[in-house]
Design goal:
Shape: elongated
CATH topology of the largest domain: Jelly Rolls
CATH class of the largest domain: Mainly Beta
Helix content: 40-55%
CATH architecture of the largest domain: Sandwich
Largest sheet: 5 strands, mixed
CATH superfamily of the largest domain: Regulatory protein AraC
Number of strands: 10
Number of domains: 3
Radius of gyration: 23 Å
Oligomer: single chain
Length: 293
Amino acid sequence: MYTIPDELPRAAGEPDDVRLVAYANPLAGVPDRNPVTLTRHVLSLVEAGEKRVYLPHQSLCCPAGSLLLLAAGRCLMSERRPATDAYRSTLLFFDDAHLQGFLSRYATRLPFRRAAGNGPRHPAFCFAGSAFLQHYFAALSAWAAGGKLGGELMLRLKIDELLLYLATVHPEAFGQFVAGVAWGPAAVFHQVVESPATQSLSLPELAFLCHMSLATFKRRFQATYGCSPERWRQQRRLQQAAQLLERPGTRPSDVFEAVGYESLSSFSHAFKQAFGYTPTQYQQERLSAEMSV
């Protein structure tokens, strides 16, 4: 597990709450999902390669030129380098106090609105590249290469400049990000379990995203859903399969891989145990029921 940016080198006298890091990974090739704990929010421009981020209720793919806005917390990450270069990105870290200070200074004069209590909340966004972002990061790189004139104060202004850009150009997304920062642990647990974005993750990966050990996650799951995670996942897959089988022209052989089974025979056996019919019999029963109406 990685703790970022705490594990990254920090220059003497550099502030802890805001940081600028030029990151490169020449070995990024196999897109393994690495568990990462972010202790700061981050703005990351992907300069070369591709970044993938897996969160409790969403997964993002950020190609070169895009900007990732990601809240502090736990996530899974993978990096893929291009064929002739290392994976490279420029990272701007800022803590919650800096974000709250930014909001107190500018929120009333910006077009974004925080998401309502029942509105969408997302702690991460990937924004497509733009001329502004290209010029912004060129200027930021030149500033860093020139010795960081103005030091900490200039860095704070540069972070605010980028946040102002996002709040103005992408007000809805920025409002959802601000709401997502305050997302509570109970909501996170349900999002981790129920989101389609996490269905391919292993149980240890789900437990990590919930800030739990695997044993604690399983106990919490049993108490919340009344069955084991494995049993619940199987029920969800079979319910999805039943919905697919009700579509005209769908064959069982078209369905078993789509819902995560390795063979048609294992799928048919599990389906019959759950519904009392084989997939083919289920389709025939549904067709007979529709014709009798």
